[in-house]
Amino acid sequence: MTNSDWFGDWQLDPERTTLEFHSPTFWGLAHVKGTFTDVSGSARATEDSVTGQLQIGAASLRTGIRKRDEHLRSPDFFDVQAFPSIAVSIESAEATQPGWVSLRAQLTVKGVQRELELPTHVRADGEGALRLQTTTTLNRLHYGVDGNLFGMMGEAVNIEATAVFVRQS
């Protein structure tokens, strides 16, 4: 697949896409790991630009512990009633080395929008699909996700995303 094969309109394949987070808790002795299961999106790549968007259902977060999930969805953390979605808007991409791009994105959580630079590995994923993989670390307080019982939680949250896009006709 050449770079020109990437040009066109793309739709996110939610079945092959994963969005995970890891956050230290208990003063760094344990980690909370979770996923968001409701993800949709699209992208467009031309010779001159790359744009895209992802919508993440905030209420779809899962850690495997129901009570913890309910607390994370509460106003203490994500406040999913007031802010039902998390948005990622890709504004541009710059090739940095073979198979890698730097995505310039805007992340919106709880109505707070901040710019991100995401080093992203891009590769063909069979039958015309593209797989994009990135990892970043965010400060949850920068997005108003500030619940913290007795100071047990760190501010840093690691995000690992694998997004598979399928070409649209």
From TrEMBL:
Domain Lipid/polyisoprenoid-binding YceI-like: 9-166
One matching Pfam family: YceI
Organism domain of life: Bacteria
Family: Belongs to the UPF0312 family.
UniProt name for this protein: Polyisoprenoid-binding protein YceI
